[in-house]
Write a structure and sequence with these properties.
- This protein has one domain: Rossmann fold, CATH 3.40.50.150.
- Helix 2 packs parallel to helix 9 and helix 8 packs across helix 9.
- Helices cover 40% and strands 22% of the residues.
- The longest helix has 21 residues.
- It has nine helices and seven strands.
Length: 240
């Protein structure tokens, strides 16, 4: 697969998932209590989830880190249009492009870590940019047995379970919480893998998922103790 195909597929994915407000609000509610101070959102894309994971209070600064120049410019356009807060900063680079003395209280990887081949190396570098007591917060697709041609097409190296995500975390970080979300969506994804075998979801299917399945997961997930789901959330903080 060439780079052009990758970019076209990923652009198509961004458009497909541009809505998903129910899902973004749901997982945002779970991670907002851990987000505060100086915040770095790694691989922010076009900032499609920024507003959903940014708390109303306790934010000193917010920086979107995005290596793709076109996407970074789209973030700037959203700031001009009022779709995003004007105080959001944008850096066109990856984690290696940060200044050595840059420090953040919260570093977010929202549907990003699965795109990075050396995930543990990535988190090792991110850890060096944490302020004392700072947190790394990860949201990623769960379970390699759900890996499909769709994952491959959009550049996913893997999906995570609790064990594999923990293996990506280097020494020096202490786990606060690791849990799953979207148990009902997990069943739908399994059905697709077994029966429909679609490589790319349709807009209609995503609307059904966001409008009907996610609200069902909001009820089922706590009843199941956040023990199963098609997305995994992990929160770690720097050891004292």
């Amino acid at each position: 697969m060439n780079d052009t195909q990758d970019f076209q597929n990923f652009s198509e994915v961004l458009e497909l998932f541009a809505d998903g407000a129910t899902w973004k609000t749901y997982f945002g509610r779970h991670i907002k209590p851990y987000v505060g101070g100086h915040v770095l959102e790694v691989g922010a894309g076009v900032a499609g989830t920024t507003a959903y994971v940014r708390p109303e209070n306790n934010i000193t600064s917010w920086t979107c880190l995005e290596p793709d120049g076109d996407m970074a410019r789209m973030i700037e356009d959203k700031k001009v249009s009022g779709e995003l807060q004007k105080d959001i900063g944008v850096l066109i680079c990856d984690i290696n492009g940060l200044e050595s003395d840059d420090r953040y209280d919260s570093i977010l990887y929202i549907d990003v870590l699965e795109h990075i081949d050396d995930d543990r190396g990535e988190i090792q570098i991110a850890m060096q940019h944490l302020a004392p007591g700072g947190r790394i917060i990860i949201v990623s697709p769960a379970h390699n047995w759900l890996y499909t041609p769709f994952d491959k097409a959009v550049g996913h190296f893997r999906r995570y379970n609790k064990q594999s995500l923990r293996r990506a975390i280097p020494e020096g970080l202490k786990e606060e919480r690791v849990f799953y979300l979207d148990s009902v969506g997990l069943l739908a994804s399994l059905a697709n893998r077994l029966f429909l075998k679609q490589s790319m979801p349709t807009k209609g299917q995503l609307n059904i998922w966001d409008n009907f399945l996610v609200p069902m997961s909001k009820i089922a997930d706590p009843l199941l103790g956040y023990f199963i789901g098609k997305q995994i959330v992990g929160i770690w903080h720097i050891r004292d």
